[in-house]
Amino acid sequence: MKIIYMNLKRVVTLVIVALMLTAVSAQTLRTGYFMDGNLFRHRLNPALKSSRGYFSIPVLGGININTTGNFGASNFLYDSPFNSNEMVTFMHSSVSADEFLGNLEKENKLRMNLDITVLSMGFYAFGGFNTIDLTVRSQTGMNLPYDLFRFMKVMGDSNYSFGDIEMQSRNYADLSIGHSRNINENLTIGARLKFLFGLGYADAKFNRMDISMSGDKWVIAADAEANIALGGVFTHSADKSTPSRAVVDGYDDVKVGLQGFGLGTDLGVTYDFTNVLVDGLVVSASVTDLGYIQWKKTARAAITPDSEYEFDGFTHMGIHSDGTNATLDDQWETTSDELEDFFTLEDKGEGKVKTGIGAKMNLAAQYKMPFYKKLSAGVLYTHCFDELFSYDQTSLMLNISPGKVLDFAGSCTFSDFGTSFGAMANFHCPGFNFFIGTDCFLGKVGKQFVPLENMNASVSFGINIAFARHKKK
Question: CA-to-CA distance for 71 and 270, rounded, in angstroms?
């Protein structure tokens, strides 16, 4: 049992610390949803049109970075009781189980994505607004359940279930073509077709990990799988593999290239109630990232659930019939080997794996103030459909455009990951556009600028060539 405990402790602790120190993620800046001069708001709703056409500066046109999570460094790192300049992990004896576990959620999640606009352009033609985008996207998520940490911290006589431990990373290029047009003076519709080019995929998941511990017996049952599509293959252990069972001990020959292909779509609609119900009220809805990628030649491995490991103490101590002496060290080495064999991944061969890309539903309403048309308030609700990494969030926004080339917005967001505040500034004139913003200002941080309370932080900026404002006919 010690080998499980030690390995889980080391792996989980290292993963958490490493992700908190280096994780970055990105998505389209939500705070700019209601901003007319926002060149990229069609990515949130393809029916939304910018007031200007544009052509992006390669790579610098749009870089969006953020992290979202319902835990922070303060959940896992504590001030050392012996040295005020040092910190200890949650596993240290000075940190009580009640103090540590009391601040965790049932599911502890961290989301990481990265969007970089390689090329993008938008222009008015063919009776509407048209967009072409080439974006590189990386989507990474980690889910660690409460019972995993309870086992690591307490490890007493009890039953533990670690279902839904998962780490996943999707990396792909997105080539999108979009068009939106007015059906009448109130209704606008839009759509984008996406060609998805898989660059790399990996996941590791425990579907079930049950440990029953009592004074005289430990019983372990596991069901786990891993899938990797990086152009390489699993390597096998020469000592543990048999003709009928190939035991995985690594992954080699990673190749840069196309690892899969998929299709996706965005659909959107807006309706302006001016002259119909309430002047200045605009409602909108969209579904984005509705699609899939099929990863080819995916290396698959698994821990099969058809067996259990049972340990009921050390036996056969003393002198054997052949005159050898079975010591406690001999017994522990044998048990450790058995546990290691039980938790090895078995190569299941290559195959195809199909994954979604995190479809999102957006519902929004905006009201332009009658006393000052350049000031408006809005609300945007988003639900993400992404299995373990699904989430809900609602943003309240205030927007102002004091001039024809300046836009400002502020936001307050309530989500499964906590409450956050954001802001965006957008400068756009013929020949030049620059925007910068955040959906979540960085909160309290540690000495290494690691978020302490939760992993929510973002920044977005871009430089583009903007055209003259489009004149409505």
Answer: 36
How many other CB atoms are found less than 10 A from the CB of residue 369?
12
Q: So what's the pLDDT on residue 33?
A: 95
Report CA dihedral (398, 402, 405, 410) to the nearest 10 degrees. -20
Q: What are the φ and ψ backbone dihedral angles of 8, each rounded to 5 degrees?
A: -60, -40
Question: 32-44: per-residue pLDDT in tens?
Answer: 999 988 999 999 9
Phi, psi for residue 46 in degrees, rounded to 5: -65, -10
Backbone angles phi, psi at 84, to 5 degrees: -65, -15
- Residue from 142, 160, 149 nearest 104 by CA: 149
The three-state (H, E, C) secondary structure of the chain, written as one string:
CHHHHHHHHHHHHHHHHHHHHHCCCCCCCHHHCCCCCCCCHHHCCCCCCCCEEEEECCCCCCEEEEEEECCCHHHCEEECCCCCCCEEECCCCCCCHHHHHCCCCCEEEEEEEEEEEEEEEEEEECCEEEEEEEEEEEEEEEEEEHHHHHHHHCCCCCEEECCCEEEEEEEEEEEEEEEEEECCCCEEEEEEEEEEEEEEEEEEEEEEEEEEECCCCEEEEEEEEEEEECCCEEEECCCCCECCECEEEEEECCCCCCCEEEEEEEEEEEEECCCCCCCCEEEEEEEEEEEEEEEEEEEEEEECCCCEEEECCCCCCEECCCCCEECHHHHHHHHHHHHHHHCCCEEEEEEEEEEECCEEEEEEEEEECCCCCCEEEEEEEEEEECHHHCEEEEEEEEEEEEECCEEEEEEEEEECCEEEEEEEEEEEECCEEEEEEECCCCCCECCCCCECCCCCEEEEEEEEEEEEECCCC
Per-residue pLDDT of 411-425, as tens digits, reads 999 988 888 899 999
- State pTM to two decimals: 0.81
> For the chain, how big is the Rg over CA atoms in Å?
27
